[in-house]
Each structure stands twice: as structure tokens, then as C-alpha cells.
Write a structure and sequence with these properties.
alpha/beta, Rossmann fold, five-stranded parallel sheet, three-stranded antiparallel sheet, 8 strands, globular, binds cytidine-5'-monophosphate
């Protein structure tokens, strides 16, 4: 049986940093589904396709060739990962991610990956929709201020020009859209373990999750 681990939670809760570490520790694949939504958003912006042009958007997704290589997303043969976390993409991604036709297509790709590999996947609808039957589900939270602070420090360490207030606003706006859209909104799966990461270090969160997983794997 394949190992599937679902990690959901709002923007900036530390999901990708934590999922990467767990993937390394367990020797499994990490799939960052947010990058897939970001890639479609970037291409749509480049091709002037608005979120309400559903036909053009669906055709765009259908012709995009996406796969992961060492945690990076390769689209049509190009590693575009560094272009996906800009403020411009972050500002628009939640609007595109609200479109049912786009989500359906990405969910198919994500399930396909999960059927082929042992994986840890992070996003907003992994435990509730994409991997509803995952053996392990976690829901990470932290206050918006703490999440904005983490993102701010991360961007500063990469010498990016950014403002804490703008990051906080982006996080609050994105959470609102993600939690209130009609298709696959962000919500905790009933059987997910919720971890409030506000006052925990990355290593403490990784250890907490690994302890749950290893305890269960030993009992199988
Ligand atoms: O994970 P990240 O913050 O990079 O995700 C960017 C955006 O992509 C989210 O704010 C959300 O709008 C969308 N997303 C989603 N479902 C997922 C993953 C991401 O709707 N499974």
C-alpha cells in the first residue's frame, strides 16, 4: 500500500518547509500543490486570461505539461519555480484557484501522482478532497500575524524588497477567498490532526508529525 500524507492549512503556516523535511526523513516524494495553482496563475496572467474566462483557462491547463523534479515545478520543460512566489502571483492565485474547472483538472493530476508514488502533499483541499482516504492528515494553523512575520523574515533573508503590512494583507485576503469559495474551500478534514504552530519551531512541528506517523506505521 502507498503512503499518502496530507497537509493542509492557511497561507504561511509552514506547510511546505515542514513537508519537505518530512519527505526527506521518510524518503518519499513531496508535492506542493500550491505551486501548481501558482503556475496556472502565472501563465494565465502572461496570456491575459482572466479568471472568468473559463474556456480559455481550461484549455490553458489542458496544454500545460507539469511535473515535479527535486521539489521544483517544471512546466513545458522549464523550471519556473522561482517565478511562482512573486507578490503578483500571490495576489491573483486565490481568484484563479476558485474556478471549479481548473481545480478538477489539477486534482486529477495530483491523484495520479499519489497513485504512483509514496507522497506527502500539501495544499488546501488535500485531506478533504484530493486524498480523502490518506492514512495521515494534518491541519497546520498559526495566527495571521505570526504567519506574516515568518514570510517577511523569509523574504528578507532572500534580500527581497517587501513590507510586513502588505504580506499580512495578502495572507488575510487569500485566507478569506480560500475559506469561502464554493468549490473545495479550505477546511480541516474531520479526521485531520490539528497543530497550532504559532509558538513551535519548525523542528518541533516536524517531530510532532513524525511521531504520529511512525507510531501508526509501527502498528500496521
Ligand atoms: O500553498 P500556497 O500558499 O503556495 O498556495 C497558493 C494558493 O493556491 C492558495 O492561496 C490557494 O488559493 C491555492 N491553492 C488551492 N488548493 C491547493 C493548493 C493551493 O486552492 N490544494
Amino acid at each position: 500500500m502507498r503512503i499518502s500524507i496530507a497537509i493542509d492549512g492557511p497561507a504561511g503556516a509552514g506547510k511546505s518547509t515542514i513537508a519537505k523535511k518530512i519527505a526527506k526523513e521518510l524518503g518519499i516524494m513531496y508535492i506542493n500543490t500550491g505551486l501548481m495553482y501558482r503556475a496556472v496563475t502565472l501563465k494565465a496572467i502572461e496570456e491575459n486570461i482572466s479568471p472568468d474566462n473559463i474556456e480559455a483557462l481550461s484549455m490553458l491547463v489542458d496544454r500545460m505539461d507539469m511535473y515535479f523534479e527535486n521539489d521544483d515545478l517544471i512546466v513545458d520543460g522549464q523550471n519556473i519555480t522561482s517565478k511562482l512566489t512573486t507578490a503578483e502571483v500571490s495576489k491573483h492565485v486565490a481568484s484563479y484557484a476558485s474556478i471549479a474547472e481548473l481545480r478538477e483538472r489539477l486534482v486529477v493530476l495530483q491523484r495520479n501522482l499519489a497513485s504512483k508514488f509514496d507522497i506527502i502533499m500539501d495544499g488546501r483541499d488535500i485531506g478533504t478532497v484530493v486524498l480523502k482516504n490518506a492514512a495521515f492528515k494534518f491541519y497546520l494553523t498559526a495566527t495571521p500575524e505570526e504567519r506574516a512575520n515568518r514570510r517577511y523574515k523569509e523574504l528578507l533573508s532572500k534580500s527581497a524588497v517587501c513590507s510586513y503590512e502588505e504580506i499580512l494583507k495578502d495572507i488575510i485576503d487569500r485566507d478569506y477567498i480560500d475559506m469561502n469559495r464554493s468549490v473545495n474551500p479550505l477546511t480541516k478534514a474531520e479526521d485531520a490532526i490539528e497543530i497550532d504552530t504559532t509558538s513551535l519551531s519548525i523542528d518541533e512541528i516536524v517531530k510532532t508529525i513524525l511521531d504520529y506517523i511512525k507510531k501508526d506505521l509501527n502498528n500496521l
